Amino acid sequence: MSPVTTKNSQENKSQSEASSSKGCKDFCWMIGGPQGTGVDSSATLFARAAATAGYWIYGRREYHSNIKGKHSYFQVRVKPDPVLSHIDPVHLLAAFEHTTADYHAFEVVPDGALIYDPQATDPATLQNLAPGVLKFPIEFDAILEAVGKEFDKTATQLSILKNAIAVAASCALCGIEFSAIEEALGMLFTGKKAKLVPLNVAACKKSYDAIQKLPGFSDYRYKLVPVEKQKANSRVLINGNQSTALAKLKAGCRMQTYYSITPAVDECIFLEEHPEYSTVVVQCEDELAAVNMAIGAATTGIRASTSTSGPGFCLMAEGLGFAGINEIPVVVFNYMRGGPSTGLPTRQEQGDLLFSIHTGHGDFPKILMTPGDVTEEFEDSFNAFNDAERYQTPVIILSDRSIANNTMCVPRFSEDGLKIDRGDIVGAPENYNEADPQSGLQIFPRFRIKENTPISTRAVAGTPGRIHWLTGDESTEIGHITEDPKIRIPMHEKRMKKLELASREIPQARQYSFHGPKDATVTMVSWGSTKGAILEAMGILKTEHQLDVNFLQIRMPHPFPTAYVQPILEKAKLLINVENNYSAQMAQLIQMRTGIAIPHHILKWSGRPMSQTEMVSAILDIVNHKTEKVVLSYGL
Amino acid sequence: MSPVTTKNSQENKSQSEASSSKGCKDFCWMIGGPQGTGVDSSATLFARAAATAGYWIYGRREYHSNIKGKHSYFQVRVKPDPVLSHIDPVHLLAAFEHTTADYHAFEVVPDGALIYDPQATDPATLQNLAPGVLKFPIEFDAILEAVGKEFDKTATQLSILKNAIAVAASCALCGIEFSAIEEALGMLFTGKKAKLVPLNVAACKKSYDAIQKLPGFSDYRYKLVPVEKQKANSRVLINGNQSTALAKLKAGCRMQTYYSITPAVDECIFLEEHPEYSTVVVQCEDELAAVNMAIGAATTGIRASTSTSGPGFCLMAEGLGFAGINEIPVVVFNYMRGGPSTGLPTRQEQGDLLFSIHTGHGDFPKILMTPGDVTEEFEDSFNAFNDAERYQTPVIILSDRSIANNTMCVPRFSEDGLKIDRGDIVGAPENYNEADPQSGLQIFPRFRIKENTPISTRAVAGTPGRIHWLTGDESTEIGHITEDPKIRIPMHEKRMKKLELASREIPQARQYSFHGPKDATVTMVSWGSTKGAILEAMGILKTEHQLDVNFLQIRMPHPFPTAYVQPILEKAKLLINVENNYSAQMAQLIQMRTGIAIPHHILKWSGRPMSQTEMVSAILDIVNHKTEKVVLSYGL
Amino acid sequence: MVSSAPVFKSSQIKSDVHPDWCAGCGDFGITNALQASVAELGLNPWEVYFFTGVGCSGKTSHYLNVYGAHTLHGRVLAFAAGAKLSNPKLTVIAAGGDGDGYGIGAGHFVHAGRRNLDMTYVVFNNEVYGLTKGQASPTLAKGAQPKSLAVPNPQHGINPLAMALACGYTFIARTYAFDQKHMKETIKKAIEHPGMALVDVLQPCPTYNDLHTKDYFSETVEAEGKTLPRIAYLEDLGYDGVVQDANNQGEVTQKRAQCFERVNRMDVQTPIGVFYQIHLPTYYDAMRENLPGLKDTTPVNLPYHDANLIPTTDLGSAIEEFLV
Amino acid sequence: MVSSAPVFKSSQIKSDVHPDWCAGCGDFGITNALQASVAELGLNPWEVYFFTGVGCSGKTSHYLNVYGAHTLHGRVLAFAAGAKLSNPKLTVIAAGGDGDGYGIGAGHFVHAGRRNLDMTYVVFNNEVYGLTKGQASPTLAKGAQPKSLAVPNPQHGINPLAMALACGYTFIARTYAFDQKHMKETIKKAIEHPGMALVDVLQPCPTYNDLHTKDYFSETVEAEGKTLPRIAYLEDLGYDGVVQDANNQGEVTQKRAQCFERVNRMDVQTPIGVFYQIHLPTYYDAMRENLPGLKDTTPVNLPYHDANLIPTTDLGSAIEEFLV
Ligand SMILES: Cc1ncc(C[n+]2csc(CCOP(=O)(O)OP(=O)(O)O)c2C)c(N)n1
Ligand SMILES: Cc1ncc(C[n+]2csc(CCOP(=O)(O)OP(=O)(O)O)c2C)c(N)n1
Ligand code: SF4
Ligand code: SF4
Ligand SMILES: [Mg+2]
Ligand SMILES: [Mg+2]
Q1: Closest CA to D174 of D197, D208, D140, D142
Q2: Of A13, A266, B612, C104, which is the most exposed, with the fewest CB atoms less than 10 Å away?
Q3: Stated pTM of the model
């Protein structure tokens, strides 16, 4: 297997030239292995150890739609300061079986390192391994046997420890102190699993020591620059599924419906695994049930949501229209994955933008947010429940596989200043008197058409004295079916006008972000998870190429922030649109909303996220050659 | 009940000033009544009689989502030359019960006429009836009793004849000869129903005679201008559901799946009622089944389609993606109705344009056609099956309630020159030998990536020696799952490139129509069923206001004919976009595809179609006052 | 659902909207029975949430003076379940057509049985798709051809009661739209039943279904030499479908078998009544066991902000594992 | 389906793709049985069309050397029905997971019974959603907690065989993924059955389901004082589910009741075999009665153009009513 790209990462290592005399400031570690053999947990261990030691982390996960056996890998990028994306060159490849060594050899920088199992791999056979790569054979089996003896187990029983062994050797090589591994192990194995800690520590210790004795150990150029430990618990190491779940808990979402689908299901399972918050999590029979059950729930006043991905989102189209016409606050999370159809179920893509905006027949208002990382995912998810109730309409959080599954180390989410907004909602009327049940029988014009606002006052089912009806048909103010144009015209208009209100009221900062200098040679336009790679590329281009680049990140594609965004686009000197899809959907949307045709595109539809490395090259390519469309393809 | 519009149709009758000394050249007849009492068939009878007499017809139907009892009405516009839309002023209102007289009185032109039942209605109480309207009391019950005596039935048994009575009186008044009614009755009541003809003729005769004796009969100004009979069978009196069904039969579609929904189901029932063509029509459990069953069928090589409306179309999103990734020719008909959600199930709207284009997650190619009348519906529907097979991808015919249910009299569809295009399809390979079954076991690269065309050669299930696989996942050339970027990238690109091919190959005339003078003061832009009103308004504006108007009709919104359309739009002096929806979806699409923002809009979202009358006023309003958005609202 | 003394008259449970069904339609009677049931059970109208699907039958929610949701075609049970789970204090009744419930809604019908929420589901079984002009519904027998069909029905009809039994419904009954008393009592029992209750109502549709008309059901039939009414009450047939002890596996098996046999039997008489009833814990009971907050309150009332709208949820135990 | 002498070896029905299931997964055996069934029935691989849903089980279509369609989650029966109806000469087999078929696909499952097309449906019943990492499938019993579940299953499990019976399936069988011979024979019978056939396969998922493992099914059980294998063959239990005369209403009723009782019975042994079989006309038979063109050919072969691709359909009888 060879890389898809023609360029080998070794050629463009300059941009991530990270090693200095003081130590390495931008380090990429990679581990791989068959699915189901603990690759994920080894990456978590390495990331935790590095974070514990005070570093910042970006972890990228790649796996097949398969339970056991297919090749998966995990890249962990480590820096002394915050890190937002991955890079292509690998400084240290840890391979406890042959496939990983074989597949990924080409990615290791010429002076990088390979940790391998000499029983599985003869490095001489690795044709794509640069000659200068340092090779560190670790006798995994021998270590397992030694540990087995200590703990009275067979090597086979302990084979899962290969992960820890690979991590410990890696840590030693790149200069993460052993105590960080110990601490990380202590945090990963808690409760019933705590008894596994000593075993792991023993294996790690042996491996940590062993590698130090190997020839070449001190020649390794990518020892991490030393850092201070960070204030304990000041940061989180988290992925987007998890930060969304936290936001839901915080926002008071107590009804989550779902139908399992990658990459949304982990969010739901996380909520299920935290019964202490008493969120009712319902595994439904399908996504039709999931969306409509959430909507039904929302009509009683609970904050309700559902999470899915493309195929499931397809099945929610009709339900969203019902929520739209009935002005029901419901929050739907669509984590995009490779499409169309079943597509690349575990891979990255941003292919659902235009579908999400236009989902459902007929015109109805929806609000669509596209967070760019785990922190924005937390913020947008929290706010979504406020927006849904304030504008009484469905809110869609359109996120993706990369945000869902990739791990970032970020400052702990700020919970200060968060506030609940339930919108215009009323309880029982004043003249309701519990002692006089007849007073509970009043009818309420739930869909009142008002003079100055498109927001009708809302009451929820179960409230005395606020009886009204819902229907998928056009309706009167109390909710009965009507086909009368005199009612239809203003009622339909009222609903649609909420989009204009949302545009006006939602803070600019939530509608788009503008990053970088006001004036720049290049203006990047993008949305969602490409944010990290773009931001980091901007830094490199400035420092290494003296190129000023700024970046317009669309955070709310619908209703589109035309008024804010148009001037930025018009002013731009060289506009480049960046998207993880084939058809440049955001560029289409921008032309739809502003008339501006973005002339340059960086696109990737290989099912893999964009790296900082790719982003830098692509921007340079466009700047230097005025290339119209750069198609990225790096990554196995 | 009063009209929604503030303007009363009587004020703008000038534009349809139709009566001259020679006779009336533009006549609007209206009948109404409770649903289920035969309003539809009376309109059919009147239309048939008029057509038989040699006139041209446009019939507009308005009904509730209800089986029996609610008010429905039917307008039949009659002209000596082809007629493409309805007008608002009513020249003759036939009301055999009070509601119709009451509701629609305001629409009758000041010198028009009212046929009514004096037992049901006292015309003096009709406040909205202009004083000059001629009033013709017809003693419906007396006629029924007389007929009853002749045929030995009670009046109650015959009450359905009130329709025929109203029609006959109307014909007499506007000058359609009695023989035309007789002929029409003979054609409507055939087979088992033929025995009803004498009954109907008798009732009609009495009514036809009675009205002639009433005072004012000869004062009526809107007697139709006499015409020659047309060549027999040279024309059809047909609606869009019916012309679609004919096209399907002609195109060889022999598998139709459906789940009942207004206004699509009549098309399916028509196919069911013609077993002589042996089309397999399957009433499915839902639209998920309908679309996927059609797709499954199409993989065996049959021409398959399904027909639905918005709510059902929502449920087809996922299936369309499967057809897209597997390059399966399937044709889906979406007859739009008032949305969102259940909306206005029996009313007109064009609200699904953007949803239809973007249906389904991820990028995949689809072709979308928007016929503008029953004839284009026939043509596009026929061609859809060719396009689907040629481009091996789903084709969507996006039509609407007006086309589906309104009746037009048009020249019989030309069947000459129609040709079947099955695209690049192969049977068994040459080296397959029936006597040697082993030769049937060859594997076929169904999804071959070719050098010069994005079209892979197709074979269908059941073909010896062409075994391959389908999957919703990204796939190899023989159809097995792959997550390999090396295959994904070109495979995805290949599919999407078919859009470019379709854009190049599909004849311009099928992508858009340009009507009217090359240079004009005003350029109209629209799509679908608004075509008729626009074309007719153009004529009026030219003759009565010396205003040159031309009209760009988008017939294939996706892939969008940018190259052809952009120059037309750029050249336009005053651009007006016309749509039967709130959000001006075509204008959004045009800006998306050309960057051009259309400054003026004529929109209507009351659930009613646009009339020629409204169109003329709205255009004048924009021309004279530069109004940005004219919102139409006429019609009960 | 624990019922109490009536407070509201049946006429008060009737809304101001005039039903637009065809004259003679069975839906009128069902609506009356629903109104009367709500009244007679002493329910507060604002604590009743009535969901319907889409069809002629779907309009029924507009005719009751209680919280009403006329939902989407086929989805009524999903909507209803969401409401019931978030506010279990509400009396949730779902209703809709046979096309709605057994056709497009069949998937939800199956899984509502698995969930056994404390809800009632009333199906208007008229063997046709009324509102779309009379196509065959899933209960129409194979070969049957009511006047609205161009060809005899090519699909087998399903037996909704057998399906309900197979899917875990804990209350399964059939009643008849022109037997007001039986219908009302059956619906009341269903509402009072603490679990998922199906009431299948034989509903004549005079407009499209000329096979099973009011006349048909009023006819007498000859069976075993006797002249009997078409409609037979299960009690009169000596049938008792109620499981007394849900833990008695023998009794459960016997009552299930009896029910299946009965609903499958090709009798000349059409039996109506309660075919099966058993008391089993509901889905919400399982939730309550697992979610500590539900000990004292309902999901919709779980607190999550203070008087100043500041969120009060402490992310502590959830965020722990991520902290570094 | 009329079978003929084998022409292809089972190994030829095996495709070149290597299954990526977990070691010890029951899916391997089912796949072997499917391959062997196609071979032993003497079917031409290109006349077999094998449809699967989405899940671990869904990948199976890639492992057979016949026309294969790995369709959408829950929709396999709809796709398969379309193919069978347009080309009834194909042997159509559908397969998929229990989540796929009884969960999201429940609606189609119900209506496939009503349609009784001549197809076989093999369900891989592992009580979990394998490919999405072990959530409860609809067949998992209430309260059960395989290792992949955070909390005990709050929903009742459905009984797919009872459901199939209620929905009109004309062949209903259960087999076991590690009983190669029984499985193969059962699948062959199902394919040969001229109607809608369900084969529910008990399929251990060693990765997520630690309740019903291969070991569990290999255990012996104590029943009525005897030590017996867990798995029992219906024949050995003296059970015969085959209706001999579909017109004999008594026999039909009895066999249906017997089947329902049997599939509901809470035995310590797990019976496998054919629970019910009856020969009834298929949906396609009804089509053929109604559509004259199908007397001599199949829908896909109905001619509609000539050699020059000029359409040959005469609109005459259809357009007549519109002519003026
Ligand atoms: C998704 C969707 N498909 C189709 C329809 C059209 N439709 C409206 S009512 C109806 C069927 C009504 O039949 P049934 O549920 O039996 O109710 P009834 O009218 O007989 O009471 C259908 C198919 C719809 N509203 N939504
Ligand atoms: C519409 C839709 N929703 C969800 C999914 C995600 N999904 C893939 S496989 C699967 C379930 C698999 O379970 P089952 O059908 O029992 O098959 P198994 O893996 O156990 O063989 C799900 C939910 C999907 N592909 N499509
Ligand atoms: S069509 Fe039938 S079900 Fe519908 S209202 Fe009329 S009689 Fe009732
Ligand atoms: S997860 Fe279970 S069902 Fe899926 S392949 Fe592994 S063992 Fe088989
Ligand atoms: Mg019905
Ligand atoms: Mg499963």
Answers
A1: D197
A2: A13
A3: 0.98
